[in-house]
């Protein structure tokens, strides 16, 4: 590996990342140990196992897990591997059943992970430790407002401490319905032939929107959305963009505050199809103001691209909210999974607008994501020449100009660098999250 | 239920008109001809002509790979286009800023196992299997699946498309990573 991955020069200013970090198999091996084995990783949303004995299987940090809701209503996360001989106990991606049965030798478990039956049990003898032959658990499991995480290490902070100010950003999503939030059916299961850190950068890269996503923006204009105010593109039309914020621990966010009084639906949403839909959106906004006050509501309806280090994004652009996570199988290949999160009890017309808006922007068959896939795969191709052309540049905004700043990416890279090399680079003080300025969820606010 | 196995063909005087009042084998042959024409338009990137095959009220759908029977009003899809969005999709694919398809990929479609039945209300229900290959920048991705379509008789090509759903026979879009072409 190279001696130095990051050049963080505050004088010039200039921030560079060495491209070998995107291609070197040794880097990926160290990432697995230093990042994916030590950080809290997203497992799923509690609404995905809404009923007793629901289960979902997936990979988290490259390992097979099973998320369940047990008979008592508790959400559990288990290693999807039989304690007997290791077989993945359940292979369906989702289902419901009181027992999880390993077909290899017939051991079965309840949805709380307890061993309930061993065929021909008597051959093990009285002293055999049946109590501890339950489905294995990741070393730590916890949740925050419906978002379930696990940690493959016992070291390090608890989830609440780990999330830090990211909790405020999760609150801004979780508060959007008095009846809670749910992940709907259907998952975007796709991939990119690119390094996973490229998708970290891309998932909150404001700078690329007007060039990479021209055709999406043309569609939004054709829908009747007015971007005529001569400012910085769509984000200016009724939505005030904020600069990036450093939430601590490598978490970061870019976002906006709704300044339109409910006249538009997010920075990148289509025009309302009719007045009735606009009226209903404003009615929803009025109810949120009743519950939370105008300032918090305007933040909620402004939207945000929120990274929870290392590989979870909750991207709420008001016209739709996606949960996206990804994991590298190879330096140049990642698997991506994305869900749609919606407010329960939402008005039918608003839901319809949300569903349509979501798909045309996000997703591997939308009018935006395929072009991101194309861009990142072409970056990866370019990195093959990293010895001749070794550096990526992420300096935008270091001079204090917040327009399309890349400070959020630098937050990620500094934390990545610290975990990979032990070198702690100081944060950029002007982008540090400040609850007095950047929003604070007031204790006692209505919440589910 | 396929037209070929459901007994007598619909009578010529049915509301379906000349194109669909044919005997079952004739109807299937006409639908096959239409599907081959459609596939040729797509493979040769004559997307404006392809778009002209659709009715004004139309839909183009691709369900999520883990919800092939998904409900467009409730579940996440991969594509859920109405006429406006389909026009936008087609128009954008013919510009150079549809970066994922600029330059256009090379595609080939094999259509088979075609079944066509009178669905009433002037419509023909079509089921057909497809395999679409997409070659670009040294990779070839393969998209297998089946179509569910609702056609109506009319237009220069013999039919117009009211609803066109492409259901992928894949568990996930890996390693494709995208559907940037029309499936």
Q: State the major sheet of chain A.
A: 8 strands, antiparallel
Largest sheet of chain B: 6 strands, mixed
Straight-line distance between termini of chain B: 24 Å
How much is the radius of gyration of chain B in Å? 17 Å
Q: How would you state the average pLDDT of chain A, rounded?
A: 92
Shape of chain A: globular
Helix content of chain A: 25-40%
Protein architecture, described:
Chain A is an alpha+beta fold. Helices cover 27% and strands 26% of the residues of chain A. Chain A is globular and about 75 Å long. Chain B contains three helices and six strands; from the N terminus they run ααββαββββ. In chain B, a hairpin with a 2-residue loop joins strand 4 (123-136) and strand 5. Chain B is an alpha+beta fold and 183 residues long. At the A-B interface, strand 14, helix 6, strand 20, helix 9 and helix 10 of A face strand 2 and helix 3 of B.
What is the secondary structure topology, with strand pairs?
The complex is a heterodimer of chains A (448) and B (183).
Chain A lengths: L5 E4 L4 E5 L6 H12 L3 E6 L8 E7 L2 E7 L5 E5 L14 E3 L2 E3 L6 E3 L4 E3 L22 E5 L2 E5 L7 H5 L2 H9 L6 E3 L4 E5 L3 H8 L5 H4 L1 H9 L16 E10 L2 E8 L16 H18 L1 H7 L3 E5 L3 E5 L4 E10 L2 E11 L4 H14 L7 H15 L7 E3 L13 H15 L13 H4 L10
Antiparallel strand pairs in A: 1-2, 2-21, 3-12, 4-5, 4-7, 5-6, 8-9, 9-10, 11-12, 13-20, 14-20, 15-16, 16-17, 17-18, 18-19, 19-20
Chain B lengths: L23 H20 L3 H5 L2 E10 L13 E5 L1 H11 L12 E15 L2 E14 L2 E15 L5 E10 L15
Parallel strand pairs in B: 1-6
Antiparallel strand pairs in B: 1-2, 3-4, 4-5, 5-6
